[in-house]
Each structure stands twice: as structure tokens, then as C-alpha cells.
Fold Precorrin-3B C(17)-methyltransferase.
Amino acid sequence: MAGKIYVVGLGPGSEMEMTCEAQEALRRAEVIVGYHTYLRLIPGYLKGKEVFGSGMRQEIVRCRRALELAASGRTVAVVSSGDPGVYGMAGLVLELIAQQGPEVEVEVVAGVPALSFCAARLGAPLMHDFAVISLSDLLTPWELILRRIEAAAAADFVIVIYNPRSSKRQRHLLEAREQILRHRSPQTPVGLVRAAGRPAEEVSICTLEGLEPEQVDMQTTLIVGNSQTFVWKGRMITPRGYRLPS
Amino acid sequence: MAGKIYVVGLGPGSEMEMTCEAQEALRRAEVIVGYHTYLRLIPGYLKGKEVFGSGMRQEIVRCRRALELAASGRTVAVVSSGDPGVYGMAGLVLELIAQQGPEVEVEVVAGVPALSFCAARLGAPLMHDFAVISLSDLLTPWELILRRIEAAAAADFVIVIYNPRSSKRQRHLLEAREQILRHRSPQTPVGLVRAAGRPAEEVSICTLEGLEPEQVDMQTTLIVGNSQTFVWKGRMITPRGYRLPS
């Protein structure tokens, strides 16, 4: 009898930010599979379970292991930080099943994505149409990423940037900033949230022209305001468009 | 002494999909403020509390009431379905405070947004860069919305469409579809999730050319695939770009 895979979103990290549905899926699982760093966020759920952890860029290894376990009848939870449906593990699990065909049931349990959590910390920057773009060119040509940045900037989307920088990619954020500056004021607010929801969390707001790549690492999410976004007492606010009676 | 406002995301609706943080904020609140329909989702949290409910398009009335209550020292929860930070109540609360200036603490408690929840129901459509666009032109000129649709389509974003239709707006979805079809194959998968997470939930997948406005109402969220998105056994999958060993 084939088993089941839950692909579970942990949200930013603490148990308080998980949904009850996600907690329930972790309790039901016999085996928990995930990136080491994320498994460390949920020690209480690992007790008495089989655990398969692996390192960065081992996503395919982890997913294959989950598939084998589920195909042999086990109930498996594959964990992902944030929401597994936003650049997360949900796609890889389904892609591998589509390719290899084991009869395995899959349920994606959504979590609070980084874009939501970071927006909450910054104020209310996502009150209007927004684009979500990853600057990682490991799996996507840089030209396509830059074209999307340009399109989003030109059409006045708020822009959420995932994976803004790594040690190998120093120039990307600068190029993205240049592209956005062609269409948006240098004074446009940019919110930065680092290590969201974790003890080392840092939240700051700068301007587009003042944005320095040194402020940013792989754990940072950026939100670039649209032409209407303003900052008020440390909060970044994109107006929804209501006419407010004064 | 000034009070506090929690702007709380309920997620799609059931308690199981709320975060513990959101539940805790509702427990701490002395007064709960919200749209009638959302208050009905959380009867257990209303017991023994003061409740201020109002109807559709009464957002400003609700927010002002919350501000008055908090300014007089009460702890207030303003509830929003999904994530209050995505087209939700977080912005209006902060905009009103910025305009009127009462000394009130505000904490936004993120919830699982409709985009995440609907993506989970459909499979894994948001594995690559995406744009989120509301078709409601109550507060935004239709020309700007259409320009964003066009930009997102041309740059091959997955497109999440909120508020696709109301009784007064029959043509908008057709115009948006026309615009997307100029850049994307008629066979592009489109996922539709109606009344996500509620008893009347309906999930379906069609093609861009087969999309009929009659399938869609104000409670529906649409996800239009990018050029790589495919459907496999009723799941909508946008590849992340991994080269999968076969």
C-alpha cells in the first residue's frame, strides 16, 4: 500500500507562526524529511520519529528519499520554511512523482510565506499589486530575471525580492537596483527583513538609491515600494487607494 | 493610556489554518472588529468579547471604530481573511493612524494568504516568479490594471488574479484574458479555486482559451501558469528549473 507525503510549510520558523494544520501533519508523519537548518526549528516534532536531514542544495536527494519512503507505505512530512508552494519543495516533490510515477498521495500544507511575514514586520507594503522575483540565477537565466525586474518596475508593481544575494552573486542586486531606478524615484522606500521570525531578526527601511548590497545577505527579503508607497514612523505603507475623509 | 490594535489574518477561514500567533492575538483582544462574514468563521473567539461587525465596503467605518477603541485604551483585534497584509486591512489601519495621529500601537499578524492556500490546492503553480493583481477597479484605474496584466504576461510571470469578477464587472476578466493571450499559449493552464478552505470549496483547472467568466465569481482566485507550467493528474506544476536525473 502506498503512503502519503505532506509537504509542510513551517512559516518563518517558530511554532507560534505555524498553522494548526501544519502541526497536525507533522504529528501524523512517521518520517520527517528536511534541510538540517529547518529541522532545528522544530525539535519537538522530531521526537520518536525517523528523521532524514540533509544540507543545502540537496533538495533532489531529500525528495527522492521522501518518495521512496512513501512508496513503501510510510507517511512522510517534507518540511519547508515559509510556504512550500512559493519557490519551495511542493514543486520538486510533484515534478519527481510526475517523472517517476510512484503511486503516492501528496498533500501540500501551506504556510505563511516570507513575503507575508516580512510585509507584516515592515507595516503594509503589499496593499497593491506586487511581483515576486527571486534573484537566484542557479536555475533561471539572469537575462530573464532582469527582464522581469524591468517589467515589474515599469508597470509600477511593488516588488518582493527573494534570494537577493549570495557570496557568488554580488552584482545582481546592484543591477536589479539600476533597472528599477530607470522607472522609479531614487527616494522609493525599500524594506529589508533579515532572518525573519528568528532571534537574529533585523528590520530596516532605506531608499532605493541608499540601498547597499552590504546590508543584504541570502537570508534577507526585500520589498521595494511602488510610486505611492510612503514611510510613516518606521512603517512602510502602500496606499490601497481609499479616499480617506479627513 | 493608549491601547493596541492587532490586525489579524485568519487564513482561508477554519481554525486549523490559522497560526497560533493569530489565535493568541484573538484571545488577548477585548474587542473584535470585522466584516460580518469573517466574524462568522470564528464564533469560538467571540464569546465574552465586545464585537463590532459591519458589512461589505464598510472598511473605513470598521477601522475608525477600532482606532477609537484603541485610543481609549482597549485592546482590539481587526480581523481579515487570508493575510491582512495582502490587499487587506493592515494598510487602511496604518493609513488612518498616519492621517489622524492617535497614539496607538499596531501589530500586524500575518496569515496564510489566498495565493498560498489556492496554490496548495492546485499543486505547485508558484514555483517561479509571479505577479499578484487585483481586477477590482473600485480603487484603481482599469487602464493601470490592464497595463500590469500586460507587463506580467509579456515577462512570463505566473499571474495570480484576486477579485476577478463582480456583478458590475463582467468584461474585466475577458479583457485580461485577451491581454494575456497576446503573449501566452491558448493552452496555458489556469487554476481556479472558489471559496478556498470553506465547505463550498471548488477547485478546477482549465486552459486560458477555455476560461469562461461564468466559472468565476468574486470568491474565486485564479492562477495563470507561465510558459513552462503543465498539468499532471489534475495538478498544476510550474517547474523550478531543476535538471532532474531520470
Summary: Residues 35 and 58 of chain A are 8 Å apart (CA to CA).
